[in-house]
Design brief:
Largest sheet of chain B: 2 strands, antiparallel
Strand order of the largest sheet of chain A: 4-2-3-6-5-1-7
Number of domains of chain B: 1
Order of helices and strands of chain A: HHHHHEHEHEHEHEEHEEHEEE
Structural class of chain B: alpha+beta
Number of domains of chain A: 2
Number of helices of chain A: 11
Helix content of chain B: 10-25%
Oligomer: heterodimer
Bound molecules: iron/sulfur cluster
Radius of gyration of chain A: 19 Å
Strand content of chain B: 15-25%
CATH class of chain B: Alpha Beta
CATH topology of chain B: Alpha-Beta Plaits
Chain lengths: 289, 92
């Protein structure tokens, strides 16, 4: 369990605590207004200047001696902000964590607040001009998003029931999309995303600039080297290029620096060689979210 | 081999008088550069500063593209090749 579980998990994982999904919590902190303000022009989030700097050419800016360090510190404290006076247009307190299909399905069947909607993914829209209805949002965020035509598919039902959400997640996961759950803002939870990389801005920020907008899962993948037949199917499933086939050994290897523990590769293996194990059971990985 | 030369900063520019809120192309109708770029360097967004003047604030109509992750550019020139209006230039 990470620091967010300690502070917002009530003894469980942060995203398993029912209170973080509740309408009462949303009302208490007037989430509807906050999220409306945030989502109206969300695509501007990387363009806006914060303390005189936007994210444009972030990779170069982070390399600048002093400014780079200040920028990194600012970005990290913004993303993880729990302050009362947060700024919606900077996406303060907005970050996510990768979760396996099983946890995503528990969220959708037991925890998510109604109404539940399935809308177009923001990242694929802004990075690829691709409208793909794979984002599952819920609680007051649903009503906010329904007002924004660019995220709402016109040719199909947007509001879905729990059962449909559970089925859709399975479909997305098997397609190779990674489930993630989002604080928006801390501690309110209202989204389960199905991401790809580099389309997803969160993966881009962490993998290239080491800014932690996306935590790794509470699990790690485990390869049973004896069971692996070297069929390579799993290699094509991994969005993070964490699996590689090694011809001389006729099996795959896992790069744990790249692996987020999403479990998506499991869907490809017909030999039962890939399993998810709780991260904390491995001393070497404990705390490496 | 001698020490690798330090890579210079890549400058990607889009001519907004061609593609953008005032140009003849609305990037929401094209987006070929965004699709062509493997590392996904480009971002399409509501033009900064015009969002409050939109007729319908929930449905903004002024859009442009910013090459946001310049340091990830591999200089493959795919975006330059696919742009039907030659609106993109890359220098370093
Ligand atoms: S976090 Fe993932 S699913 Fe959500 S908007 Fe971004 S890419 Fe799409
Ligand atoms: S190797 Fe890791 S990151 Fe890649 S699909 Fe498997 S669990 Fe996910
Ligand atoms: S899918 Fe399974 S058997 Fe095939 S290479 Fe991957 S781990 Fe090995
Ligand atoms: S040159 Fe290639 S990598 Fe660089 S922005 Fe254009 S398409 Fe992307
Ligand atoms: S390819 Fe050219 S015209 Fe099309 S969106 Fe990109 S910059 Fe604009």
């Amino acid at each position: 369990m990470c620091q967010w579980c300690m502070s917002h998990g009530a003894g469980k994982k942060w995203y398993m605590n029912a209170r973080n999904y509740s309408d009462e919590l949303a009302e208490e902190s007037n989430m509807k207004d906050y999220l409306t303000e945030q989502w109206m022009n969300f695509e501007q989030v990387y363009i806006r200047k914060i303390m005189g700097f936007s994210s444009k050419d972030l990779g170069y800016k982070l390399k600048m001696p002093i400014i780079g360090r200040v920028l990194r510190w600012r970005a990290e404290s913004m993303i993880h902000s729990q302050k009362k006076k947060r700024n919606p247009v900077r996406a303060d307190g907005h970050f996510g964590q990768v979760i396996p299909l099983e946890d995503a399905q528990i969220i959708m069947s037991e925890l998510a607040a109604e109404p539940i909607i399935c809308n177009y993914c923001m990242c694929r829209w802004m990075q690829r001009r691709k409208k793909e209805a794979v984002c599952i949002n819920f609680g007051v965020l649903s009503e906010v998003l329904e007002k924004l035509p660019r995220f709402i598919p016109k040719d199909r039902v947007v509001r879905i029931d729990r059962e449909t959400a559970v089925e859709k997640l399975e479909e997305f996961n098997k397609k190779g999309y990674i489930s993630s759950v989002w604080f928006q803002p801390i501690p309110y939870i209202n989204a389960v995303c199905s991401c790809e990389s580099p389309e997803c801005g969160a993966f881009t920020l962490r993998n290239n600039f080491d800014i932690n907008v996306m935590y790794k899962a509470e699990y790690i993948i485990q390869l049973d080297q004896d069971k692996c037949q070297g069929c390579k199917s799993c290699v094509a499933m991994c969005q993070l290029s964490a699996i590689r086939f090694i011809p001389s050994m006729d099996r795959v290897i896992i790069d744990y620096n790249k692996c987020y523990g999403c479990g998506v590769c499991r869907h490809a293996c017909k030999n039962d060689a890939l399993k998810l194990i709780p991260r904390e059971e491995y001393p070497g990985f404990d705390g490496t979210y | 081999m001698s020490k690798a030369k330090k890579k210079k900063r890549t400058k990607i520019r889009i001519d907004y008088s061609i593609c953008g809120e005032k140009g003849k192309i609305d990037p929401r109708n094209c987006g070929l550069c965004m699709r062509a770029c493997d590392p996904a360097v480009f971002i399409m967004h509501e033009t900064l500063g015009t969002e409050k003047q939109q007729k319908d604030i929930y449905d903004p109509q002024d859009w442009r593209i910013t090459p946001i992750w310049g340091s990830l550019c591999s200089r493959c020139f795919k975006c330059v090749e696919v742009c039907p209006e030659n609106a993109i230039t890359i220098t370093w």
